[in-house]
Each structure stands twice: as C-alpha cells, then as structure tokens.
Amino acid sequence: MNVPSTSRGLSIERKVIIALRFFAAGSYQMDVGENRHASVSQPSVSRIIEEVTNAFSNPAIFNKFVHFPRNFSELDDVRTRFFSKYGLQGVVGVIDCTHIAITPPKKNDELYPEHIYVNRKGYHSINTQLICDVNLRILNVSARWPGSTHDSHIWNESHVKTFMTSLHDRGFTSYFLLGDSGYALRPWLLTPFLNVEANTPEYRFNEVFCRARSTIERCNGVLKMRFRCLLKDRTLHYSPNKASKIVLACVVLHNLCIEENVPLINEEVEDDDFGIYQAVDNEEMSQSRQNPELVAGLRFRQNIVNRLFTN
User: Fold this and answer.
1) What are phi and psi of 83, to 5 degrees?
2) What's the predicted TM-score (pTM) here?
C-alpha cells in the first residue's frame, strides 16, 4: 500500500479502517465514506477498498495467513486437533462451498458472461470453496468460480485435491478430508453413508461424521457474520474479479481473528444462503458405474467403521 506523500493524505492505518468498515458492514461506499470516523468521498472510498483488497489478496500476504498444511508436522497438528474434539482420526480439513452474491456482470462481457454466474437458486454469485480446520481457521479458499459451477468441479480443479491424491499415491493414507454427499467418495475425501439404519455401525459413523463436518457450516456462518459484505442480502456491487479479491481479503481477516482469539458476537444469520447444498452423488448409488477410486473409497471408509464403530 502507498504511504501518503503529503500531510493531507490518508494514512495506511486510516485506509485499512475504512476498508474494514466496508467489509464488516457491507454498506454502500457513500455510507462508509460519510461515517464520522471516515469522512471521505465515495470515489476515495472506492480507491481505498481496491487498494486494501489488492494488498490482502497479494500472494506475499495472502499465503502467509491462508495455506493448507505444508508438511507432515502441520498435517499431524490439524489431524490431532480433529481427533481430540471428535474422536475421528485422520481428518485434516472439512470442505464445502458457499455462494457470495454479486451484481450481474454485463450480458455481452466476453470474459465474464452474465449467465454463467446464475446459481441454482436463481441469483448471481461466485461459488467459493472453503476448507477449514477444527478451530474454523480457513486452510484453503477458491473464490474464482461462477455461481453455476458445481462444487465437485471446483474440487476437481483444486490443487488441494492434487496434493491429497499424491499423499495417498505415496502411501500416506492416514490423512483425508470430510465432505458432504455432493462430492465423490474417495480415500482422500470421505462422505457419509446414504440411507443407513439406526443403531448400526454405519449410523454411528455418520453421527460422528456429521458433527465433525458441521465445522465448515459454522465457519461459513462466522465468516459472513464478521464480514457482512459477503451476505446474500448485501450483494457485492463489483465485477467478478474484484468481488473474488474481496472474498480473499475477508478470508485473511477471518484467519487473523481466529489467530488473535477475537470473540464471536453472534454467528446466527437468518434466511441467508450459505451455499450448503446436501446433494447426493449418484456415483456411489450406482454399482454399475463403479471405478477403482470409488471402490478404494468404499473400502477405506468401511475399514474405519469396522475399526472404530463396531462393538
């Protein structure tokens, strides 16, 4: 960020405070600028938000605060914390997507055609993939996909998937993620059993699984409560590219709040779409279309059930 060249220029600290006001309230730029603690024009607010957002989304800063475990020591630390809380050994993250509402791009935009941003609920959004740890710290975020993109496609294009499959290919099979049934079951990404009977080992597995997986739902809620510009009813009035950078900036700030133990005030949001969609992956239900990775996933999950949930 630029240091003011004159005494009348805005300090970096003041610029950050103005941007934080926008991130936290999700108000229009005019309202932010007219706040008695800001007192700057709307064009100035616009430039400030862009400058601060670019700073936080810069890889040199972003990667310092948001990163998937980079070595076995970090993987083991995340895994131990999940096991201590939920008793499910091997979990190194929980994954899901959430929709961030944006204004419609121009219909004739060659780079960002309007129709691809309309999600399944009929509004324009960016479908944002989040992976968090047990403390709600976001380990990975992908905020560049149009609202019509399926969660599973975002995951298939994720470098975290490449990393996890590489781990398993090298024999390090004691690390995996948890996801809902919209994802394909794999040894490195476990999903719950479908249509299980009560009081069975599979049912007990699902109970623990769902408690652990709810971490990502809470993470989504906390992120949007802290930074209300991401709420559906606030809607980001920016191009998809700028909106994506705002999401990244908010994720950095969210992790800073987690790191500094900033207390949560109220994480309940009524009638907001967190993008959590309990889709059913038909691959597992169709035995005729099984593939080696699915078979390995079925076997891997059943081994966990046999080892931990069978009396």
Assistant:
1) -65, -40
2) 0.89
Q: Which residue has the tokens 């899901």?
A: 96
**What are the tokens at 148?**
């019509």
* Residue pair 113/105 in contact by the 8 Å Cβ criterion: yes
pLDDT at 41 over 80: no
Q: Which amino acid is at 136?
A: L
If one compares 4 and 169, the residue with the highest pLDDT of the two is 169
- Which is nearest to 284 in space by CA: 274, 271, 297, 273? 297
| Exposed / middle / buried, residue 253 (Cβ in 10 Å: 0-12, 13-18, 19+) | buried
CA–CA distance, 91 with 213 (Å, rounded to integer): 10
Write out pLDDT tens, residues 137-188. 999 999 999 999 999 999 999 999 999 999 999 999 999 999 999 999 999 9
* Three-state SS annotation for 196-242: CCCCCHHHHHHHHHHHHHHHHHHHHHHHHHHCHHHCCCCCECCCHHH
Per-residue pLDDT reduced to its tens digit, 53-76: 999 999 999 999 999 999 999 999
